[in-house]
Amino acid sequence: MPNHHPNKKSVKLFWIVAASVFAILWLHGCKVPGMHQPEIEQGNIITQKMVDKLRPKMTRAQVEFVLGKPVYQNPFDINRWDYVFTKESRTGDRERKVLTLRFEEDELAGISGDYRPQGDAAEELEPLLEPSDNADEADEETDADQIESIDSDEETEHDVETTN
Description:
The longest helix is centred in the C-terminal third of the chain and has 21 residues, at 143-163. This protein is rod-shaped. Strand 3 (80-88) and strand 4 (94-104) form a beta hairpin. The chain has helices spanning 8-27, 48-52, 60-67, 120-125, 135-138, 143-163, and strands spanning 40-43, 72-73, 80-88, 94-104, 107-113. Strands 1, 2, 3, 4 and 5 form a five-stranded antiparallel beta sheet that branches. It starts with 7 loop residues before the first helix and ends with a helix. It has one domain (40-133, 143-163). It is α+β, with helices and mostly antiparallel strands.
């Protein structure tokens, strides 16, 4: 009868293979060049159809029904709602879109930003459209810029904490 007792070489080979398999599985979740990296989307996703549903004198509740809650409401200006959407691609390119709505007496009174109504909505909303790069606002930092600034400050603080 042949002896099936494992010798030292086969035991050593088993442990090398087991350790290699464990290392591969453990490192599978780490960032490896060429691995899939998802796009990162944050904020309110606004479509052209949604913007085209806006109408003059809509109430805040009606606007919220169409667009959802704004990502940022300025506590010092309750009549201004900012919808901000950012998308960061795998390559690090960042796309940022902003829609700012202004209310007067709980009714939609102004629209500015990267989204513009089209079709029938464009005619109806024409009186509400405000220039996005108004000379008065050009010197002022928008609330959306302040939000982005806060986000980048938090990332910097996190980087400092992890390096200490």
